Amino acid sequence: MNFEAEILTASHDNSELYVIPSMRSLTAEEYVEAFKSFLDHSTEHQCMDQFNKEAMPNIMAGLGNGKSTINVLGVGSGTGEQDLKMIRILQAAHPGVLIDNEIIEPNPRHVAAYKELVNQAPDLQNVSFIWHQFTSSEYEQQMKEKGAHKKFDFIHMIQMLYRVEDIPNTIKYFHSCLDHHGKLLIIILSDSSGWASLWKKYRHCLPSTDSGHYITSNSITDVLKRLGVEYHVYEFPSGWDITECFIEGDPVGGHMMDFLTGTKNFLGTAPPGLRQRLQEALCQPECSSKKDGRIIFSNNLSMIVVES
Q1: Coil, strand or helix at 162
Q2: Alpha-carbon distance 170 to 207, whole Å?
Q3: Residue 21: its pLDDT value, please?
């Protein structure tokens, strides 16, 4: 984590000194709150729903190769909403088949929310669940130590590679966990997204407290080409309404900027020049568009389906 020093500053009438808090990265709990504000104001899940509707039934139909149990692994599954949608598509494609669903998720709050979601679902009788409260690298290390070689018919990594240290080797390891005719789904930000422009062209506008990796789909397909594996990319449009980021003192805008920068209270702790540069960058046409007076940041996604 990167911490900048606190600065003592005189107030306007010089009567007292006040402290500008230092910039710091989001904790795991703070990230959950910031991420919620992102989901509430973006079409990310609707975009995934569109992919589920248009492409997933065909993808799921080819899994399992006639087996009585289909093995699924979710890597960085979060609170499980997307996992369960995919499980239901798999159930519809293979009625009566048992589904063994394993989940890797390091955040305890996310694991608890996922379990609650499963407890409330009446239609998952043929599905077993095992949670591994680890990061993907911890899981990989533990499996290698145990000498475990379990193979999976379907593995998915949805919007999680930004937090992985060694992306090429992580993809290589989980691809090696695929069974014959298995598929690996990677969902990642598209190179046509505002994020890609922000990270490439305006990286100097982002604070050093942002601890994630600036990864988009082209970086992933480069890795897959080097691995010599077959893959197919689906592109889906998605938007994020960031209008509140420009309204002084707006709490929702504050959470959004925290998510965007990976920084706690970015608007309150960032130097004014940095704050202004970032807000200007967000308004650039390669990052955002205006619709009905709102500022919509491009959040386009790439769904990459990798063959075993």
Answers
A1: helix
A2: 26
A3: 65
Q: What is the three-class DSSP state of 165?
A: coil
Q: Which residue has the tokens 């990286």?
A: 203
CA dist 289 → 239, 282, 293 (Å): 9, 10, 10
Q: Convert the pLDDT of each residue in 198-242 to its tens digit.
A: 888 888 878 777 766 789 999 999 999 999 999 999 999 999 999
Q: Is the pLDDT of residue 3 over 60?
A: no
The closest of 80, 143, 138 to 111, measured between CA atoms, is: 80
**Residues that constitute the known binding site for substrate:** 44, 299
Q: Is 106 helix (H, G, I), strand (E, B) or coil?
A: coil
- Comparing CA positions, the residue from 199, 295, 162 lying closest to residue 239 is 295
Strand partners, 189: 301
Pairing of strands 69-75, 231-236: unpaired
List the structure tokens of 302: 């790439």
CATH topology of domain 25-59+67-307: Rossmann fold (3.40.50)
Annotated binding-site residues read: 44, 299
Beta partners for 307? Answer: 183
Tokens representing 212 are 């994630």
Give the DSSP H or E segment for 288.
Answer: strand 288-291
Tokens of 130: 């095992």
- The predicted-structure confidence for 9-28, as pLDDT tens digits, reads as follows 444 444 444 445 688 888 87
Among candidates 272, 273, 268, 277, which has minimal Cα distance to 21?
268
